[in-house]
Structures are given as C-alpha cells and as structure tokens.
Amino acid sequence: MSFTFNGISKDFVHVTIETERPIWAPVEREIVEIPGRQGAYLRRTKTKPRILAVNIVIKGVSDLQKAKEEIADWLITDEPEALIFPDEPDRTYYGMIDGEGQLAELFKFGKATVNFICPDPYKYGLEHSFEIGNPPDPIGHVQSAGSAPTYPIVECTFAEPADQYEIQLLNDDESVKAFVLLNFDFIAGDQLILDFANRSATLNGEDKKTAYHHTSDFFKIPPKRDTLIRVTQPSTIRFTDKYK
C-alpha cells in the first residue's frame, strides 16, 4: 500500500517492509558538570526534528520517467504537509522531503528511499471538542488521550455584552494554574476565536490579539488526565491528541 501525503496517495508507489520509523523523535540533553561536585545537572532538554526514511518501490507504470516527474510534483512542497502511513492510519505526521530522490531503476520498476523531515517532531491523533462554561457551572472537564501536551483552540459567541473574556486552566482544587485574559468591549453576537499555539485572537474575523492582557499564559492541555477549565462565557474548546 502507498502512504498518503498532502491528502494524496499514488497507487503505483508502495511502502516496503524495510521502512523503519523511530520510536520517538531525537531527544538532546544538555548536561553540565561542575568541578568539585559529583555527577552533573540537566540544563535543558530539546526535542529535535523527527526524520522518517521511507523505502518505496514504484511498479505498475507504463513510463517510469513520467512517473518520477509525477512523484516529484506530489512530494516537493514548500511547507510540511500531512503524512499518513497505511499501517498507522490514526496518526498524522507533518513533514516535507529532504535531500535527493535517487532511484534504482530497472526498466519500469524503481526502488528508492525518500527522507521526510518533520520540523514538528510530534505526531497527531484525533481532534476533540468540548462545550464548557454552560450555566450554571462555569467549569468544564476536558481530556486528551495523547502522550504530550497540546495547544487548544477556543471559540466563543457572546450571548450578552461583556468587558472581558477569560479562560483559566485549573488545578485539581480549582485554584488557577494559568489563564488567558482579553480586555475588550464585547457585544452580543460577537464571535471570538483564540488559537493558543499561534497566540492569535480574531473577533468577527478581525485580528484582536492586542486585546490580550500582558500576563496571559497560553497554556497547553495536559495528556492522559481529567483537566478542569473555567471560562467567563460559554465556549467550545477543541484540540488534537499529540503523541511523542
């Protein structure tokens, strides 16, 4: 079977059994030793881009050279695109090809290794959507099934005027762990969308990120636990499960 890249698959491109995907993206530790002290301490941890070497065969084509052109047109992109493998259909990588496309050719048959680099080293699963803050309880419960924290997108349609909007990530005792606050004179019917990953805010389609309070902390949804979220207006929060 072929893989799917940028929403497209080719029935003449087949992933071989030799293809190997690393268990996790490379993890780089910066360790500092201090003279006179035992051992060392961890200064920082960095997750580096994930590299996927995909072995493919090209077969069942009438013109191998034209097939190579079609593959190049398919795989060469300016930005990372969705990459899905047939044996892992519920996970999505975001990658782009890196390096050359050398093909071992024999008449109408070809074999090659295609290297994808994923600047975002994580892979993604299902998207979840939760309605939170509906009266009488301003606190909602959300859950991510992933293994890594993930940024949410929050949408709110104001039912009444308000001079601010706030969403809070709570501890188990309902104390505030982090929050995002906007100060603005909202009116009934206003549609607000907050993208935490990009720290963007749009109100009725217009950029309103200047309304963010400077102390806002664009938090992530933690994995594998029940998470408490409090909002000042009924809202929808959605996010995609993220995996190491």
TrEMBL record:
The Siphovirus-type tail component C-terminal domain is annotated at 146-243
**Where is the Siphovirus-type tail component RIFT-related domain positioned along the sequence?**
17-118
Gene3D superfamilies in UniProt: 2.40.30.200, 2.60.120.860
One Pfam annotation reads: SPP1_Dit
Q: Which NCBIfam families does UniProt cross-reference here?
A: phi3626_gp14_N
> What is the name of this protein?
Phage tail family protein
Specify the species: Bacillus changyiensis
